Amino acid sequence: MIYFDTCNTPIGDFFIGIENNYVVSFSKILPKGIKKETTLTKEVKQQISSYFDGKLQHFNLPISLQGSDFQKIVWTHIKTIEYGNLQSYKEIAHSINHPFSYRAIGNACNKNPLYIIIPCHRVVSSRNIGGYALGLQNKKFLLKLEGYNF
C-alpha cells in the first residue's frame, strides 16, 4: 500500500509517496494510494525544507528506486553528485561504463521518481545547462540555490 502526502516548496507542491517505509516518489504526479501523514513523510518535508533553507546538502532518507536496471544505475550514480557540483551526461556515461548512452541518461533523468532527492538538476549538457523534467526555470532556481548562476 502506498501512502502519500503533499510537500510545499518554493518551486511548487510535490507529492511524497511512501511504500513499506521507503520513499518511492517525490514528484508532481499524484500517486495512487491513501493520503496519510506518516513519520517518514514528516521527515521528507523537514529535509526538503532544510534543503531550500540552505541548511541541508545531502538527503538521508530510506529510498526505494523503481525503474529499469539502467535507470537505477543512473539514479544511483546521480545521487552521488555532491551539492554544488555538476556532471555532464557524457561524464556520467563514462562513469557508469556506458560511454555512448548520453540520451539514455537524459531519459533516465526525465523519469526520475525522486526529484531533488536524486539531484538530476545537477546533470548538464557539455555545452549548456541541458534539460530538466520540471522545466529550465526550476533547474536554474535549484542550481542558483546551490551556488551556480546560469
Automatic annotation (TrEMBL):
Where's the Methylated-DNA-[protein]-cysteine S-methyltransferase DNA binding domain? 69-147
Give this protein's Gene Ontology molecular function annotations.
methylated-DNA-[protein]-cysteine S-methyltransferase activity
**GO terms under biological process:** DNA repair; methylation
Q: Which UniProt keywords apply?
A: DNA damage, DNA repair, Methyltransferase, Transferase
What reaction does this catalyse? Answer: a 6-O-methyl-2'-deoxyguanosine in DNA + L-cysteinyl-[protein] = S-methyl-L-cysteinyl-[protein] + a 2'-deoxyguanosine in DNA; a 4-O-methyl-thymidine in DNA + L-cysteinyl-[protein] = a thymidine in DNA + S-methyl-L-cysteinyl-[protein]
Entry EC no(s): 2.1.1.63
Signal sequence range: none
A Pfam cross-reference name: DNA_binding_1
UniProt keyword annotation of DNA damage present = yes
What the entry lists under PROSITE patterns is as follows: MGMT
* Superkingdom of the source species: Bacteria
Q: Which family does it belong to?
A: Belongs to the MGMT family.
Q: What is this protein called?
A: methylated-DNA--[protein]-cysteine S-methyltransferase
What is the protein's species of origin? Helicobacter anseris
The organism's lineage is: Bacteria, Pseudomonadati, Campylobacterota, Epsilonproteobacteria, Campylobacterales
